[in-house]
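PROTOCOL LOG
Step 1. Enter all chains and additional molecules of the complex.
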Amino acid sequence: MIEVSGLTKDFRGNGHVVRAVEDLTLEVHEGEVFGFLGPNGAGKSTTVRMLASLIAPTRGTATINGLRLGVNDAQIRAQIGILTEAPGLYERLSARANLEIFARLYHVAEVDGQVAKYLRLMDLWHKRDAEAGTLSKGMKQRLAIARALLHEPAVLFLDEPTGGLDPEGAKTVRECVSSLRCEGRTIFLCTHNLDEAERLCDRIGVLRQRLIAVDTPEALRRKLFGRQTAIDAAKLTPAGLERLRALPFVRHVEVRPNGDHGSHLTVNLRDPVAENPAVVRVLVDQGAEVRYVTEVRHSLEDVYLNLMHEPAGTVQ
Amino acid sequence: MSDIVVIIHKEWADMIRNRIVFSMLVLVPLIMTAIPVVMLYVAGSASATPSDLDQLRPMLSSNPVFAGMDPQEALQATLGSNLLILFLLMPLIVPITISAYSIVGEKLTRSLEPLLATPISTQQLMCGKSLAAALPGIGMTWLGYAVFLLAARLFAVSDRVFNVFVDPMWLVAMFVLVPLLTIMADEVGLIVSSRVDDPRAAQQLAALVVLPVIVLFLGALLGCILLNALTFLAAAAVVAMADVGLVYLGTALFQRETILTRWR
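Step 2. Run joint prediction.
Step 3. Record the structure below.
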């Protein structure tokens, strides 16, 4: 659906060249929600603008829905929907008038019907005649999402859809994105919100001028942290710990005291499901009392922060 | 064409709800129409003497439309005729008020990016914005001129005075020069608006476009420039050439990338 190869963007000004995006290569599949993460200034919005054919890449190629960037720009713009970083509404016009303008510019066949459909879908029907400037932040964001959907685009670019919204507004927008996912649209989601990315995205890409990682959140966790089992045990002896470390499939063991006579172990394993019984057996045989065993699940935030502190290089 | 119409409707809908812009659009033509109408009435009711005629003689002798007029007619005709130049300022001021805000205003509200993300071309967008500014300018000027003619019909001391205001010279000015001046003003406004990031700077810079008409106005008042159909046709030819250049320049200077990435 989206194929990007070697996409690079340089900005020139005051005699300087600033590279915003470097050698970006990735694929986003049909019906996939692809999360694009990165710190401020990483090049996320620039990438979206390039892919939405708003600005031209300095180098590299991209196709969106089979259309070549730089060749079929008007057709690309007709087939994608974009939610920009700021809603960018005509604040003096009503919610309905805002949508009507864009429905006409996208040459929607049945303007009134389509506008009404999305006003209802975004729960804005009761505010249809209110000036956009009088709407709450969340409502404005929903109106901007409706505007991006009016022409039923196959690909949707969402740049920080929940940025600046209160928890309730953010939840509504997330639910909306979730429902779009169920409709099978391809969604390219730029976000700072890692929890949001975790919940909504099939795969994520982490950008820091270059793409430094791309995969499913789970696969990235495994690549960066391996698989870990956390064990809480009492009466753990040094001999027991030695036996545990000697097991051929145990990669690393970290021990921390945990209350009176208790220890908290983090054991790096290849396949916890298969290897946990042997680990527990060794500990019990050596006199330890195992209180609980669980798989350690690193948050996407751990993954992200780890990647941000990694030297440049792509984790594929 | 339909995209251009959508842009025009959008601009007008937004403009009508912008109190400052809208009040400027109403007040400026109102004042510029009221001044010549009031002056025409005053000149018609005040009694002119032969000494007034002596003062006006250089102007009267330079233009055959005033030939054979008595002092009262000459006073009203010359005053009205000079003030008609205000109708050449109107098609500059009205479009500038709209076009100078047109792009910089969208930059401020961040509404330009979603607009540029639609399939609309730069030419269509510029044409729509240009027409949205030009049509009220032309319409207001013609309306003002019509009101002036109506007032002239009522207040002119004779048909000879009225005929001065519908002389081919003024018909050329109104129906040839006015549309061309309007295009010039709104293109200058759009160019400035697409290059600056402050609406006040845009308004002030674009307002410089009225200078040539003020020079024309002062030149006519001082008798340095002879106003006739030929003068206006020559001015129209110059403005038409400027318009062609400005239209190309306006589209060329509208850099989507610069607009989206350099303005915050």
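Step 4. Note key features.
The CA atoms of residues 83 and 146 of chain B lie 14 Å apart.
Chain B touches chain A at residues 2-3, 6, 9-10, 13-14, 17-18, 109-121, 256-257, 260-262 (CB under 8 Å).
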